[in-house]
Amino acid sequence: MKILESPLVSTAGSHGFLPPGVAFAPRVDVAQLKFLGVPESAADTVSTTMMGLMNGRPTIRHKGGATPDSLAMIARSGIDVSEDMRTFSEPEEAYRHAKSLIRDGYKLAWPYPPQKGCYRETANLVAPRLWRKLNSKRNLPLIVPSEYLAERAIISINTKSAPTISTPCYLKAGGDMPTGMGYAVRYCETQADVEDAWEFFKSLGVSDELIVEEAVPVIGCWCISLSIDETGVRYLGAAEQLFSSPARQSGSVIDDDHPFPKEGVKVALTVGENARTMGFRGPAGMDIGVSADGRFVVFDPNFRPQGSTQQASFHAAAAKRGGFRASRSLNVNSDLDIRGAERALRRHIDSGRVVIFRAIDGREMPSVPSASVVTGFVLGADREDADHWHATIMKCLD
């Protein structure tokens, strides 16, 4: 039985994520994603993020994520996409759309900075220089009070061999290129791990420096979602990170019976306010762990849309609508075409069990390695139930 009668309302509410007069132009150059460990297709797929959270403003989207079939699946989930949407197939089209919007007086917001010189500096909502400063792990002490940081040191990688480092620890890329998703991070239990990681970072060429960070034992780590504008910083929710191994995130879960602690929310708002005073505006977040002794530790800055932003924004409304208390992230590259994927998921979407906020038609986006890409979250009565249904839904899309 179909239970979806009205659109889901995000926790961003009427405030949204961007001020008036700003267009969302998320297509980026592949070079900007080099140190995220993502395929080249991400330069296209990133343009399909934040569906349902950019309503009422101009957007630039790849056609593969904005086909009638794609938008119908998202709408069936209860997410209203009411954008002034421009679509593209080739990068040059995206840049032409962006320059046209600039001529019309819009500023641009993006998940990752455009190529240097692509647009004039004043055309950006956030200066690329500030974006890089805030998203650099090296610069966390500029915005995070010291009591919420792990012990860390900055070392040069321009040596012939790896130095002896106290373990266990994490080695993380320094510099100002965007990093994330655990790609430019290595967990080291032994000196041999340090030496292997050292060779990896030297081959990666991400930076001339590395961050050596204390391996803080945590009982949980959450990805916090914020919205930052002229009026202040709003907390939108938090998704607990799931890991396949240390620093290797495999997904996220929101469990209403085990929410992110309120004291941790205060930490996130403090960090967000520090970034706001520096001039940042837009969707943002950070990774915060809770140590075994109850201490909050900020590990990574994410002053951009995150993989869990839409889950955190729509979870509360979706859970209330269906009577659920937990959700688990879903991201599948499926061999089913977009219509086949919709048919496989239809009854689960109609029951409120599944929410889809991105649906990519591989025929229209040849850069993706599958017939379709489906992204959203699966809901359950509790965490275990959400895990069970997540496994069921994954099989539906095989």
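The record above closes out task 2.4. Task 2.5 opens with a second protein, given below.
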Amino acid sequence: ARFTEIFGGVKYGPNGSIGLWDNGPALLARYPENGGPGGVVTQAPHPSPSLRGLIANGTRQGVYHTRSGVDSIERVFAFRRVGDHPLYLVVGIADDDYLAEWRRTAVRMAGLVALFMVATVLASWLASRGWRRHFEYAAVLEASMAATEQAHRRSDLILEAAGEGICGVDGDGLVTFVNPAARHMLGWEADEGIGWNLHERAHHHRGDGTPSPAAECPVALTLRDGEPRHVSEDVHWRKDGTSFPVEFTVAPLHHGDRTVGAVTVVRDITQRRWAEAQMAHNLALNTALGRVLRKSLEDVPLAEVLDGALTELLALPGLDLEQRGCIYVADRQDGTLRMTVARHLSPQIMASCATVAVGSCLCGRAAASAEVVFAGCVDHLHAVRYDGMADHGHYCVPILSGGAVLGVLNLYVTHGHRRDQDEERLLVMFADTLAGVITRKRIEETLRDSEELGKTLMNATIDAAFLMDRDGIILAANQALASRFKARVEDLVGRSFFPMIPPALAQARRAQFAQVVASGEPLHSHDERDGTILDNRIYPVRDAAGAVMQVAVFSRDITEQRRSQQIIEKALADLAHSNEELQQFAYVASHDLREPLRTITGHLQLLHRKLKGGLD
């Protein structure tokens, strides 16, 4: 549609045409339209031999007469290459349009040859009119060439708007064309560049500062062998003597069989280089952090994980750090910083800085302020000094978790090192990772302590204790349960409990288990089998949402207790029976003992009445 819009208004006769060809040659677009909307060609017509020959010979412009390979109409064609692009604009005016009248006049002249002298004036007039028509169409052709020139200017505008630098050179390597982007890259003024030797001005040295021979320049090689070249990484030099990284392509310009010049397309890859360096740096950082995190998942001490982390950090590319440093971990009781791991520190530092109080020296200040402390030299804030201490600086990065200081990452830099925000951001990121590692290891330590305490408490009781999930799988068990089943604790964990007991009992226990899970209430039951009496207590274990997810079972063997109770109950019954018999005996004995006393008492009373008053 754009092609039609540009050339549709040009007048070149009813049978005229205008076409855009590449160096195939293949017809890309045509007006009048030939197969597709907007002049776009959908079928590949054959070019005329004349056009094919002109393109093959590298001819830039010309005029020729031939029969069109597209629609077989004879035309006079004007031919021109579009700039240095492999595109050719071909404008044709049909013979029948501009010579029709002239041919009719020629036929009349041949028929009236006998009357030549009589009709000379008339024939001359007619011929003159025919030639005027010819010149009129020549003007049309000139207008078509002007339209072509306008298209050429538009292509120049496109080149000027291109973000890449584009330079054209002749066979001697002298600049014949340079776009604004290239001038900007090279620091050239608007009126500079044309006629300059491109290699001497922009490619005279390599990136390491050594001279770059002109004979080895990719532009010179392309001018020599006519082959295109692509250079993925190189440097170009500005007018002010500074260099910048580039990627460029060199394409030859041919005229017939000769290479008459070349076009260089240059791209400044400074940003790409920076992005690639950042990507490589981030990849190295992520890889190092990944190794630290994987190490932290292993069952190893915290000191071993931190030692590996310090090694990874000091080996990271892109950090201007000395190969020494240490990691402090804060004491959980008083917060004192204790050096846990160190790398390449002097014996004096190892002894003097083994522990650091919060607020003391640089590391203590970092812990007190919870902010990064930087020093580019051994300044007044260095509390620890000794004879022969080398000049140095520090990054002291607090290791923080939820506002709490877990430790300090202490790294050495060379004397005079400048504080770098990117370095600091990376070190803070690394310290944040260490905070997660320290927190995890402390939790693991607490869990291990809790687990050991739980095992101790479970094994200290005489009850058989175990924990099951909702499917009846044993999650934990104590030694008392293992002894009851004549197995090891580790052999019980992971097994289903119910198949371990008789089927009838298992059915009853499943029902009790389901009842506790459903109701969330504890259950107390007794179990007697094979002469053994068990006292069972089943307790629900809830998750954070209150749902019963596990069940704890405590089973005590009360067989001996029950037997002792039965013996005591029998003894008490026997004692009660003995007491009853004793009471009966005492009653009889008391009766038998009281009867003589009553007889004696009676006799004494009789004597008292008879002898009353006569007794002393």
